[in-house]
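Kindly inspect what follows.
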Amino acid sequence: MAWRLVTVDQLPLGHRVLRYGCRGNDVRELQKLLLQGGFYFGEVDGYFGVLTEEAVILAEKTFKLRIDGIAGKQVISALRQLTGKSGRTIYTVKKYDSIETISQKFGVAPSAWESIAGQGNPRKKLFPGMKLMLSEKALFAWEDVPSTSPFFSATFHSWAEITSTGQLDCKEVVSEESYHGIGADGEVWEAILTKRSCQRRLIASLKTLPGIKYGLDLRNIPQEWRGLQSKFLSTVLKGLNKGQFDFLVITVVPDLKRLNNRIAFAELAEICSYGRWILAEPPICRDNQDIEAVLKAYWRLLPKLNQATMHRVFPMVVTNGWEWGGAEGRHVSFRECKILRALHYRSARYFPELFLTRVEWTQQGENRKLYYRDNQGWVDYFDYLKRHHFPGTVICRPTPLENTLSQLVPHAFAVMPGSRLKDL
């Protein structure tokens, strides 16, 4: 057996912690990853200097990691995950370019461009060689039937229901390019989760599906049976000989009791491991006595889940509002929400941390509340997606607001075309 000595500077990336002053092939690999991610714009020379350290710090801020300028396993892993996916465009300014002409070329507003550390503010001054960064997000629609709107990256829709025996009651496949949701009501989920015979029939039914993209909609699973979700998903995937579903739709219920937070989060992260994409919905129902506290905890929890799943979480939002009064609750169209706000404008209050406006009034001696997302709420929500590096979002039944959304979205990010979704 022949032995060969390997010096430190010949080690591949990940075999040592890199910091200021290091040299070697692994530093060169790190610089390439930082360059691809849009964090580094210096020479790829294999020397960990000031520019490389600043790029690592910018990456650490982006990924919400400890900020120390040292490239350890977490930084390298996050960079590898990021550079293996789409999500941002780096544009180098050319001579005679203006922010308006560049924006027109990419179909966005000038405000969508982000400044990069050390490159200046693109909305104040441009110069040849300057680097600009543009976020690109997948914008999905959840419709009753597949949408053909070119504005969205793709469409999700409820396509099949699981029966109490574990078989599928499917609709006609309208488009193989859309994503097909398979769900069930609460009582059926109880049978599916607890009876092996139902699971076997479900696996057999899923094996007969045509070549479509499908996933499971788990939102109707009763709270008392959610502890069985992980085992169920593992069993079904094993029976299908698949690693993951194309997507999972889940309701993320934040645990307001701090003692249980870590346990609940670990269970949630395990469930997310069974889906390529995770479509996350907040718990909205009239049983929530303190809906504002629940939603605030939800929007704080979601970025942590997105980071834990390596940026695979797509928040789901709706265009309608919710009205509560006594024992009654109902969905309210966006148009009616605007009318109710105009009628009771004195009591209207905007909650920026929830991206919602609340309107209160009294009707026939009964206190009523309305929550809905106005234009400012949408602007703040899109900014939230960018700040926390979500790969995209799902908008349920967006048709009534499509014109408004088509005006607001270009100010925040570029919409990823459907042809590039495979990169996510």
